[in-house]
Design brief:
single chain, 213 residues, mainly alpha, elongated
């Protein structure tokens, strides 16, 4: 029960902070739709950075499986570093997507409530139509973003398994075992990058549509 109370208190606090932030930004002429566009841009950029990081991790994995003498521990350290950077990049992507969801929810809730303030039925109908179209475009964007996000965890899990195995077995036999895993990890990273590229493209389309309104 205590944990539930603490969790609910935290949610209320964070919600209050977001509300205060939106209010402060609106006072200086920055509205929720502007914040949404900015956050979609940030999410897009984080995915661009993440796909490059996963490429770097794959290249370091390739260097390990091509090991042909020398300091295997050095290669392990480099692979571990790339894995850690990949985890950080994935966390950043997830955080950016969450921030997009937060402001989008606030924007659509406010927009829906403000429809009731119209006295002109024609203008209200146009605004309601625009809201629905924006929600539809956003839903498609979020679906693509989430699909790309979900592709990251299986890749990270596989990388972590192989990094741990190499750590515990710094020898040629371990390298041989990793060679057998390389093709599967490479395919998963390729699929991840394709999904991220789709998400980046969808983000650009959404941003242009919002700026055109």
């Amino acid at each position: 029960m205590l944990k539930k109370i603490v969790l609910m208190s935290l949610i209320v606090l964070l919600t209050g902070c977001q509300t205060a932030y939106y209010s402060a930004m609106e006072k200086v002429g920055v509205h929720k739709r502007d914040i949404l566009v900015d956050r979609v841009e940030e999410a897009r950029d984080s995915q661009d950075d993440a796909q490059q990081q996963f490429k770097d991790a794959l290249e370091q994995y390739r260097a390990v499986v091509q090991f042909n003498g020398g300091e295997l521990e050095t290669l392990y350290d480099r692979l571990k570093s790339e894995y850690d950077d990949s985890v950080d990049a994935a966390d950043q992507v997830s955080a950016r997507i969450k921030s997009v969801e937060q402001v989008a929810e606030a924007l659509f809730e406010e927009w829906q409530e403000e429809l009731d303030q119209y006295q002109n039925a024609g203008l209200r109908a146009q605004s309601a139509k625009q809201l629905k179209e924006t929600q539809t475009r956003y839903a498609e964007l979020l679906k693509v973003m989430k699909r790309a996000e979900q592709r990251m965890q299986p890749v990270l899990t596989a990388l972590n398994d192989n990094v741990l195995y190499l750590k515990h077995n710094l020898n040629a036999r371990a390298v041989g075992a990793l060679k057998g895993e390389f093709a599967g990890i490479s395919q998963n990273i390729d699929r991840l990058i394709r999904e991220m590229q789709k998400s980046i493209k969808e983000s650009d389309t959404f941003i242009r549509s919002m700026e055109a309104q």
